[in-house]
Design brief:
By secondary structure, this protein is α/β, with parallel strands linked by helices. Helices cover 37% and strands 14% of the residues. The longest helix is centred in the last third of the chain and has 27 residues, at 294-320. The protein is globular. The structure holds D-malate.
């Protein structure tokens, strides 16, 4: 063939971080078929969907089986019942100005993060490091120029904006509670970023996928910060909150106040979604709506509490051992400094071989992740306690 390819794909690593880890674990399992594996690598939920949510989905399936209540293509931006339920959630968490018409339902945060560069021009991109690799990769794949702000032990992995506001208007990614570090911005920290974005004419893409894990007094949404509705898009998901990693549903908020060159960003996003996306199934959206109210909400909160108990157990061990870590309080992730100055991949091999524990090396999240390691609290309590016993012997 002599067609041209998008050679920007050569600018990203050959395999996606979690595919790489899955391959290594598969190999270990083949070589050690009798060893038990404790999976604390990818942040994938393990508790089943609550019955309150699946019964809403079952009812929706039954509706699909009857001529009178069958649903074909879903509305491209989501059914009103779900957009209204998400808007009610924003009211609950302190952002009543987010109304259903600015909420765009999708099949998950990862897709929206990957698709947003479609509507943005060739702006400089600022990304904290370490960070969820999808932000970097999806920009590199589109030929964008990425620069990093360093998260490290000195700033507890919560970097603040650069002091120099004399920069080109940029696209800035922020994830809070952060993946991978579990660190959460305070109101002051997030206000600093919003003020920086407004002053520099920049856009923030705020990833709130882990919002449900916040229990301390920290912002649940960027729209709690004054001015954010003029400079920020927010992306969120039912994956971690309602256990929808295998069901797929999320949303993006594009407020009306976001404008560049006299054009509303919502106009481009709506056009992009209408053209390239055919919506989320009725059954899925019914399940998602059920997770946001009544028994569904209670059940999802109970699942979050279960994972948080795992995180607390891990945090206790690392505190006792005097190992530096962030996260574990408002987040399902623990981000720890590898003992004995090991690199992340070295520690990965060491605990896989010694204990059968799989985690994620910090190197996979950027240069500043070197020598760090991410553990997830999404496993069973029993396995987490087993892992804790192993970590006590480090
Ligand atoms: C992670 O482990 O970082 C996440 O599960 C990946 C994702 O949400 O796509």
């Amino acid at each position: 063939m002599e067609i041209k390819l998008n050679n920007h794909f050569l600018d990203v690593k050959e395999t996606y971080l979690f595919s790489d880890i899955a391959k290594r674990v598969k190999k270990f399992q083949e070589e050690n078929p009798d060893r038990e594996i404790i999976r604390m690598g990818i942040g994938d939920v393990t508790l089943p969907l609550p019955a309150s949510v699946t019964s809403a989905m079952e009812n929706a399936v039954k509706e699909m089986a009857s001529k009178e209540t069958f649903h074909g293509y879903p509305p491209e931006y989501g059914y009103d019942f779900l957009r209204d339920a998400i808007a009610a959630h924003y009211k609950e968490i302190g952002a009543p100005a987010i109304t259903s018409n600015v909420i765009y339902v999708s099949d998950g945060a990862k897709s929206d993060l990957g698709n947003l560069p479609d509507i943005l021009g060739d702006n400089p991109v600022i990304i904290p490091d370490p960070v969820y690799p999808v932000y970097v990769d999806s920009n590199l794949m589109n030929g964008r120029k990425v620069s990093f702000v360093a998260g490290n032990k000195e700033n507890d992995f919560l970097p603040l904006p650069p002091a120099d506001t004399n920069i080109e208007p940029s696209v800035i990614y922020i994830c809070s509670p952060n993946n991978p570090t579990g660190a959460v911005y305070s109101y002051e920290g997030l206000t600093a970023w919003v003020n920086f974005a407004i002053k520099t004419g920049s856009l923030i893409i705020f990833d709130a996928a882990y919002e449900a894990f916040i229990t301390e007094d920290k912002p649940h949404t960027i729209y709690e910060i004054p001015g954010a509705d003029t400079c920020a898009i927010e992306i969120s998901s039912f994956s971690k909150f309602a256990g929808f990693t295998g069901v797929r549903c999320g949303w993006t908020v594009v407020p009306d106040g976001l404008e560049a060159g006299g054009i509303k960003l919502s106009k481009f996003w709506a056009r992009r979604q209408a053209t390239k996306f055919n919506g989320v199934s009725y059954v899925t959206q019914k399940g998602a709506a059920a997770s946001l109210s009544g028994q569904g909400l209670e059940d999802c909160k109970a699942n979050i509490a279960y994972y948080k108990r795992n995180a607390a157990a891990l945090a206790e061990v690392f505190t006792q051992k005097g190992i530096y870590f962030t996260g574990g309080v408002n987040s399902p992730y623990i981000w720890l400094k590898c003992p004995d100055n090991m690199g992340g991949w070295e520690f990965f091999d060491s605990i896989l071989n010694r204990f059968g524990i799989v985690g994620t090396p910090g190197e996979g999240f950027g240069e500043n992740g070197a020598g760090y390691f991410r553990l997830t609290a999404f496993g069973s309590y029993e396995n987490t306690l087993k892992a804790c016993e192993f970590f006590k012997t480090l």
